[in-house]
Write a structure and sequence with these properties.
Residues 5-299 form the FAD/NAD(P)-binding domain. Its cofactor is FAD. The protein is of the alpha/beta class. It has helices at 14-25, 61-74, 136-139, 155-164, 184-192, 292-311; strands at residues 4-5, 7-10, 30-34, 78-81, 84-88, 94-98, 102-105, 108-110, 114-116, 132-133, 147-151, 170-174, 196-199, 202-208, 215-220, 226-230, 239-242, 246-248, 278-280. The strands form five sheets. Strands 4-3-2-8-19 form a five-stranded parallel beta sheet, covered by helices on one side. Strands 10-17-11-12-13 form a five-stranded parallel beta sheet. The chain has a four-stranded mixed beta sheet with strand order 1-7-6-5, with no helix packed on it. The model has no long low-confidence stretch (mean pLDDT 93).
């Protein structure tokens, strides 16, 4: 298409939507491209308690993101639902090629987020959707009155374990260390929940079953002992949910945008990358804290930097 946007935002998670809101309010012509559902990982989080100013109870990731999207659109952001296939970022005008059309912009904000890291056990790929999941909100109802296991020890893992306890008969957190990394307030809820237990110093080595997940081998990292866990005969299966970190969605930008060895994009405190006119925001960038509030802040900063660049205000 012939139109050249002031800014094209890649991704509609909290970082991308906040960038859209601030860019729109600055009267910049703005396009947000998102291939899936708005919100990224936060959209599949059942309960959020740490975003300033939100409802203290009853706020889900989906409801928060819906309001963010409405704000961005209110201030004039255009939206496209498409998969980005190729980017050309080195010219004065950036080109974003998608499965629908080709879009051009003077500036780009990379807010593509990250995706769940696999558990890493033998047989994992064979049972995705057949007992293995990375989204409690998506799949918890399939395990009502079943036993489920959650791999991880951070905020996401413990929060998802608590959510799963609303459905499952029993939830066991499998953690490779002897203490959880989740915030203390979240840990307190977990330890107070009679349905939630923790299997310490352990990792899942292998999973198996006939068509569906029916068993796994769990290794104690201190003793090396292998324990075989099998589904209850009456249930016939159990659930295994992985929440052990994320992998940045940055493959499209390799070789052009500077990254660390894990693929997280390098940006300064004002979200500039090494390429003029290209900014980074949210979970895809190197940062010490990946939360909704920091993603939104990143997006706001990136958009304001573009507004100042266009208007000449420093």
């Amino acid at each position: 298409m012939d139109k050249i946007y002031d800014v094209i935002i890649l991704g509609a998670g909290p970082a991308g939507l906040a960038a859209g809101l601030y860019a729109g309010r600055s009267r910049l012509s703005t396009l947000i491209i998102e291939k899936g559902q708005d919100g990224g990982q936060i959209a599949i989080t059942d309960e959020i308690e740490n975003y300033p100013g939100q409802r203290v109870e009853g706020e889900s990731g989906a409801s928060l993101v819906e309001r963010m999207a409405q704000q961005a659109e209110k201030f004039g952001c255009e939206r496209v639902s498409a998969t980005i296939t190729e980017v050309e970022l080195l010219g004065e005008v950036k080109v974003i090629k998608t499965t629908k059309e080709e879009y051009r912009g003077k500036n780009v904000i990379i807010a593509t987020g990250a995706h769940s890291r696999p558990i890493g056990c033998k047989g994992e790929a064979d049972y995705v959707g057949k007992g293995v999941s990375y989204c409690a909100t998506c799949d918890a109802n399939f395990f009502e009155d079943f036993e489920v296991y959650v791999v991880g020890g951070g905020d996401s893992a413990v929060e998802e374990a608590l959510y799963l306890s609303k459905f499952a008969r029993k939830v066991t957190i499998i953690h490779r260390r002897n203490e959880l990394r989740a915030a203390k307030s979240i840990q307190e809820k977990a330890f107070a929940n009679p349905k939630v237990e923790v299997l310490w110093d352990s990792v899942v080595e292998e999973i198996f079953g006939e068509d569906i997940l029916q068993g796994m081998a769990v290794k104690n990292v201190k003793t090396g002992e292998i324990t075989k866990i099998e589904a209850d005969e009456e249930d016939g299966m159990f659930g295994l949910f992985g929440f052990i970190g994320t992998i940045p969605n940055s493959e499209l930008f390799k070789g052009v945008i500077d990254m660390d060895e894990r693929g997280y994009i390098i940006g300064d405190e004002d979200m500039h990358t090494n390429v003029d006119g290209v900014y980074v925001a949210g979970d895809v960038r190197i940062k010490s804290l990946r939360q909704v509030v920091t993603a939104a802040a990143d997006g706001a900063i990136a958009a304001i930097q573009i507004e100042r660049k266009i208007t000449g205000y420093v």
